[in-house]
Amino acid sequence: MSVCPCGSRRTYDECCGPFHGGGAAPTAEALMRSRYSAFARGLAPYLLSTWHPRTRPGELELDPGITWRALQIVDTVDGGPGDDSGIVEFRAVARTAGGERHVQHERSTFSRVGGRWVYVDGGSGPLLR
Questions:
Q1: Which residues pair with 121 in a beta bridge?
Q2: Where is the YchJ-like middle NTF2-like domain (predicted)?
C-alpha cells in the first residue's frame, strides 16, 4: 500500500483515496490535503469538482513535469465539521522537470456548498457562499 502524498503518514486508501473516489471531505484541511494529493497524482477532474463554482476555471491542465514533494499545513482558521467557511495556510514543495525547487505558499479560503467543502481561492478575502 502506498503512503498518501499529503503527508498524513496514512495510506492513500485510508486518507485521500476515499475523497478522490467521491466521498466528502469532513473539514477544509482534509479537502486541502486531498487537493494536494490530486495535484501529486494528476487528478485534474477532482480538482475542478472541488473548486467553488464561481471561481472555478473552465479547464485545468496540470504540468506533468512538476513533481510534488511535500505539503506543510501552516495554519487553519475554522473549517471544521460544524463550520461553513475556513482558511488553510500551507506550503507545498515541488520540483520542476529541470530540477528547480518551487514552493507554493498560499492562504486558501474554503466554503461549504451543498454540504461539501470546496476551494474558493488562494487569498483570505471574503468567502463566497
A1: 109
A2: 27-122
Mind listing the pLDDT tens digit for each residue in 74-105?
999 999 999 999 999 999 999 999 999 999 99
Cell numbers found for residue 34: 486531498
Judged by phi (left if over 0) then psi (alpha if -120 to 50, else beta), residue 79 lies in left
Question: Which residues touch 73 (CB under 8 Å, ≥6 apart)?
Answer: 29, 32, 33, 88, 89, 90
**Which residues span the domain enclosing 26?**
12-121
CA dihedral over 91, 85, 51, 36, signed as positive or negative = positive
Rounded Cα–Cα distance for residues 103 and 126 (Å): 25
Q: At which residue does the C-alpha cell 510534488 appear?
A: 68
Non-local (6+) Cβ contacts of 100 within 8 A are none
What total of structural domains would you count in the chain? 1
**Residue 103, amino acid:** V
Question: Residue with C-alpha cell 479537502?
Answer: 31
Q: Across 11-115, where does the E strand assignment appear?
A: 67-78, 85-95, 101-113
92 within domain boundaries: yes
